Amino acid sequence: MGPIKIFDTTLRDGEQSPGVNLNQLEKLEIAKQLERFGVDIMEAGFPASSKGDFEAVRNIARTIKNVSVTGLARAKKSDIDIAWEALKDADEPRLHIFLATSPIHMTHKLKKTPEEVIQTAVEMVTYAKQKFPHVEWSAEDATRSDRAFLATIVEKVIEAGATVVNLPDTVGYTTPEEYGALFRYMRKHVPNIDQVALSAHCHDDLGMAVANSLAAVENGATQIEGTINGIGERAGNAALEEFAVALNIRQDKYPYQTNLRLKEIKRTSDLVSKFSGMAVPANKAVVGRNAFAHESGIHQDGVLKNASTYEIITPELVGVQSNNLVLGKHSGRHAFKDKIEQLGYKLADDKVSEAFQAFKQLTDRKKEVTDDDLFTILIDVQTNIDDLKKYSLQAFQVQYGSSNMPTATVALTTPDGSRVETARTGQGSVEALYNTIEALVEETIHLTDFHLSSIGKGRDALAEVHVNMTVNEETVSGRGSAQDVLEAAAHAFLNAINRVFLNKSTTVQETAPL
Ligand SMILES: CC(=O)SCCNC(=O)CCNC(=O)[C@H](O)C(C)(C)COP(=O)(O)OP(=O)(O)OC[C@H]1O[C@@H](n2cnc3c(N)ncnc32)[C@H](O)[C@@H]1OP(=O)(O)O
Ligand SMILES: CC(C)C(=O)C(=O)O
């Protein structure tokens, strides 16, 4: 048997996490990193769901050449047609069609009889197969479906041309023992099952997504679906980094291979966390900040005597560098370029210059520039929307004292290039700043979430702010980093406002049937 195929759905199911809203440049950066990580298939979005998703899938399908790119579609001709427009330029266009098979979903959601569901599934797979060489068919809510019915519909969609069959645990309901038994059942009762790849897709509602995925491979699954950091609808999906490291560390129990490069795990996780605004909990397996930290005396004593006493995974295995101190104030352009190549980035010359400038500015203010800082600079440069910016920050000042009202003064450049300036108060410094920016822009803004974190450690660590808000009733998120917390907050707020204009300026081309 060949390696287990890894199907990443960070950009589709992962983006279904409440509050996550990735723009096209961010999606493309994540896609490039998933390619470096070595996933076999990436689900880049659901093209029929929005213009933004359509554009993102098309862009990724045209750019990513070493990973098979797919998009999701309902069992509807119009969804399939739109997906084809988005994916037709991929090297080997691949479609993912889903249709629910559980009594609950068929009765209450689809309002179809089981016979109608079989007929629709067969018709849509047949239709899709006229365009796409690879068609994955998912039996949504498979784990709450009748097994005999599931075996019948699976046999028929394979006859209709499906090349992959997925049995999702859509609501995270199943247990490892039950899920393993489902895969054994399918292998035994579907006569043509060996003609397709058999896939598992697990959700983490009961905290068993990775355990269930492992049970699936032990019982005949040849493809595993999941996301980076386990992000996704509700409690999320199986975390691919946890699945991959479990296979690696417990080869004795799971003698399966994947094409993943484990050393890329940390960077992939950092990138997804940064863009999605979903911080990785410190105690999360494999990528959490504490995953390799030893706090208690007995553990520290053991690790000093022999690391294997308390460490089953080495930080190096997943790309966590123990000493990530890098360039400083006196470093020049060559060393800088060399370092960013070591970090795996290939930037055009103008972007290298932009990143070098940002790096030099930082060295004036910060003693030690770490890999984390550089990483932040590089992805800011790669995804900056300056050319399309509607508003940009010229200057700001905030006056704060424990006994007076915080007051902010802000100067912005507006889209027509003019400079506007005003002052407002607020209950706190950030509110004063945001009230002032809001008074200067013409948009209607409602802030729904604000999250502050530090990049790296120490008093001079960079601050990073994520915001979620609605701008003119459109839901957007924004990100900003700076050494000062208020400056990072101002950048994040403006970044979110400006994304509305980015979304507007990247409309679907005439060819797209939307
Ligand atoms: C398990 C999963 O993760 S599935 C993927 C979930 N992802 C998303 O929903 C992405 C975001 N979704 C959207 O943007 C929207 O829901 C859209 C654009 C896809 C559809 O929007 P709308 O046309 O307004 O429909 P709405 O979402 O309200 O309802 C879904 C409709 O699709 C139907 N439907 C649901 N699943 C399927 C399916 N697999 N095949 C065919 N029809 C389906 C529902 O029965 C309902 O139909 P009805 O209008 O006849 O009752
Ligand atoms: C579309 C399918 C695979 C899905 O996301 C689920 O069932 O959870």
General description of the model:
This protein is of the alpha/beta class. The chain starts with a strand and ends in a 9-residue tail after the last helix. Helix content is 39%, strand content 20%. The strands form three sheets. Strands 1-2-3-4-5-6-7-8 form an eight-stranded parallel β-barrel, surrounded by six helices. 45% of the residues are buried. It is globular and about 75 Å long. It has 16 helices and 14 strands. The chain has four domains: 5-276, Alpha-Beta Barrel (TIM Barrel), CATH 3.20.20.70; 292-321, no CATH class; 333-382, no CATH class; 386-505, Double Stranded RNA Binding Domain (2-Layer Sandwich), CATH 3.30.160.270. α8 (209-218) packs across α9 (240-249). The chain binds acetyl coenzyme *A (ACO) and 3-methyl-2-oxobutanoic acid (KIV). 3-methyl-2-oxobutanoic acid binds next to β5 and β6.
Provide a brief overview of the structure.
The chain is of the alpha/beta class and 514 residues long.
SS-derived structural category: alpha/beta
**CATH level-four homologous superfamily name of the largest domain:** Aldolase class I
* CATH level-two architecture of the largest domain: Alpha-Beta Barrel
Q: How helical, in percent, are the residues?
A: 25-40%
Write down the overall mean pLDDT: 91
Shape: globular
Order of helices and strands: EHEHEHEHHEHEHEHEHHHHHHEEEHEEEH
Domains (count): 4
